[in-house]
Amino acid sequence: MKLRLLLAAGAAIALPLLVQPAAAQRAAPPPAPVLDPQVAALRDAALKDDVAYDIVEGLTTEVGPRLAGTEAEARARAWGLARMKALGFKNVRIETTMMRTWVRGVETAEVVSPFPQKLRLTALGGSGATPAGGITAEIVYFPSFAELQAAPDGSLKGKIAFVSNAMVATQDGSSYGTFGAARFVGPNIAAKKGAVAIVIRSIGSDHGRGPHTGQTNFEKGVTQIPAAALSTSDADNLSRMVKRGKPISLHLTLTPRDLGMTETGNVIGEVPGTDPTAGIVLIGGHLDSWDLGTGAIDDGAGVAITAAAAKRLLDGPAPRRTIRVVWFGDEETGGAGADAYFAAHKAERHVLVAESDFGADRVWRMASKLPSGANAIGDRVAAALAPLGIVRTREPANGGADVGPLVRAGVAVIDLNQTGTRYFDYHHTPEDTLERIDPAQLAQNVAAWTAMLAVVANAPEDIGPTPAK
What we know:
8-stranded mixed beta sheet, alpha/beta, elongated, disordered N terminus, 16 strands
């Protein structure tokens, strides 16, 4: 999962109503919409779903890590094509595009003095390389990203910057955007201030020795310096060394390579609708993953949840609207799959998009951004989700990185937000494996997505584009 707008919102006290201020809670809520019994039946049957687990189990077992632009991602596309066909989706195909591809190499670090010991770390995507023999330099300690920003220009010449801001877990994942800046742009800032390298405390809420990778970005013209994330435990240990008040020298070896332009792409399948004029409902997640784990929660779960929900409508009466399932390529390192999809399909009438890319724990909140003429659809979706323990928020939906181009073009969007309190314990780490997935919570996701699709894909209202603000 890449950085996206993650907004906190209050919890509702009445379902499926919007979160209300205290004064409004004294008044009787408006009556909830009458729920179509077929929607309820589809939702409840999906609570016993095993298709999603079969998909993510197969993807992580038969393909494993799927770094964007590599041979492994190509195998994932071939696997996805075969799996979508086997599930019965129609118009199944792969649409490829090109991307610039980075791969990791040797990754080691050790404190040379005054307390010699090895550290566990991993290169950030897009990191520059050290010489094959590594580099040795003194570290400059920054307890927070803000303090790195405030460092004078040139003050890091010949030094290794060490940024140790500690992320905390939140249910909605909003802390990722706050603390993640150390990874997203910290290396670029350190390079501009003269650093020969940078190490950061992993952007994660765990307390272990498995480092968290993820993409970083350098501005055009800025030298790509070696950039790595220390495990949270090793970063905390290094911070304790700093407090001893002695200069600390670090030996760092990172040898990633740029492979140039290679192929990525999207796997697409459909549930054909009965009304060609009613538009397309696009759902999905991203097929690529980082290479430390097997990409189970990021984002094998997302492609599995959305495909399993769509299959439940595929196996029943044809919906009014076409449901298009897209397993996007290259979400993690730059979004080439999303950009290519938008370029190829922006002229088609997409009426609503939704993306699953926040793990496999239960859905707890629903957000929407619909045109005023379709507000009743959001009401019916909220009513269908309420029995699953899902609340509705006043905050508008934002979508995710893969559907972002369509959302920015004005297409309506619904977010089904998953509980994120443990997501960043495993995000982008070697621990992102199938064992992180609870089958019962995964099935609750499928039930939520099934209910949402059953309402949206069959809604009689014209959804249309969201008016520009």
